[in-house]
Amino acid sequence: MWGNVLWFLLFTGVCQAEFPIVVESPMLKNSGVATGYNQSAWNLYRQLSAGGGNVLVSPYSIGMAMSMALSGARGETKLQMQTALHLKMSDEELHQGSQKLLRDMGRFASDSSVEMTVANALFINPEFELVSSEFVSLLSQSYDAEIFREQNLDLINAWVNQKTKTKIPKILERLHQNSVAVILNAVYFKSNWAIQFDKEMTEPLDFFVNQDTVIQVPMMQKTDHYSLAYRDSYQALRMPYVSDDLSMVVILPMQKSGLTALEESLSLSELHEVLQELSDNQPSKVKVGIPKFKVEYSVSLVEPYKNMGMIDAFSASEADFGGITGQEGAKGLIWIDQIQHKAFLEVNEEGSEAAAATAVAFATRSMAMTPEFIVDRPFLYLIEDKRTGLILFMGKLVNPQE
């Protein structure tokens, strides 16, 4: 008999194809919660990217949501989740690290140049008694989760809609009749560029989707001072927001059809090196052209996580979430039924606006003089917080018109 379900809300993308998982490099190992969030999301991204098309994930939203789920795992289920999530640390380190990231992001509350909302919530079905008071206290105290002792699909979607400023109006289409609880995470970000683009300079220009397809896109253009980094097969540009801790980084293949090869060769450790170089480099005069674009992305993360070795968490017989139920030796009492992720990002002349939400379901039996950086081909991008090293959003744009 199928039973209760716990939903978990998250940003991400979908991919059915298998993809080789990146092995965590020694320099990144055991370097903190933020690194775990970034590494796990990078592995997810590589799988999702194999499916083609635009991709958008939020390492922060995914990491925070999955940390809350991990907090309730026990035994082999916990070990598999720790490995897949790159969070091999004590419970205390996990909770303190996640709480510190919440506090770090909270610093933007007093910054009028940035709108940053990070919110967690737990909706509990009062008809069941499978969520322990200890788990409720943990999420409330360590993850600042709002606690709702009711479960209503409209209320859940309304919470997400409100926290993401209407950018994600609905995260769940249905709620299992035996749903136990819903864990939610939502992230909203909006900020202006430190160097804004002049709308009058935006004009239709060619964008090479692939070797056979060229489309016209509204290309924002500006000549100003930006940090650049060069590698043999790609170049990277840092576009700071008004708060210099936050920036968008665009990684552009040298070849018009070079994105796939770049994704296959680029490691997270190399990416961190590039980010550090961009942060250290003195800005120089650059002619920049980048498309205006808007991406809305929705995906299930169950198969990607299974490919990463997180198997038992989805098993109706092997899942051990005794930390949620408070019951020892009760394998299969509840399990993750699904994980949904939605993301939104808009980039224009003023700046960027982004939002994310995640749902996890548990079920139970009951260079020239002026270098040019013209983004006229598929590219990678990310939004980073320099202080914490956390990647807030990351993705690729293959077709600005999709």
Radius of gyration: 21 Å
Low-confidence runs? 1-31
Rounded to the nearest angstrom, the distance between the terminal CA atoms is: 41 Å
Under the CATH scheme, the architecture of the largest domain is: 2-Layer Sandwich
- Output mean pLDDT: 86
Pattern of helices and strands: EHEHHHEHEHEEEEEHHEEHHEEEEE
Shape: elongated
Number of domains as seen in the coordinates: 2
Q: Helix/strand/pairing class, anyone? A: alpha+beta
Determine the CATH topology of the largest domain.
Antithrombin, Chain I, domain 2
User: Can you say what the CATH homologous superfamily of the largest domain is?
Assistant: Antithrombin, subunit I, domain 2
Helix content: 25-40%
Fraction in beta strands: 25-35%
Q: Total number of β-strand segments?
A: 16
Write a short abstract of this structure:
With 402 residues, the protein is of the alpha+beta class.
Q: Could you characterize the architecture of this molecule?
A:
This protein has 402 residues and is an alpha+beta fold. It folds into 2 domains: 6-192 and 295-363, Antithrombin, Chain I, domain 2; 199-291 and 368-397, Alpha-1-antitrypsin, domain 1, CATH 2.30.39.10. It contains 10 helices and 16 strands. It has helices at residues 33-49, 59-70, 75-85, 91-106, 133-142, 153-163, 259-265, 268-280, 302-307, 322-325; strands at 6-10, 55-57, 114-124, 146-148, 181-192, 203-210, 213-230, 234-240, 246-253, 284-291, 293-300, 335-347, 351-363, 372-374, 379-385, 390-397. The strands form 2 sheets. Strands 2, 6, 7, 8, 9, 10, 14, 15 and 16 form a 9-stranded mixed beta sheet that branches. A hairpin with a 5-residue loop joins strand 8 (234-240) and strand 9 (246-253). The two termini are 41 Å apart.
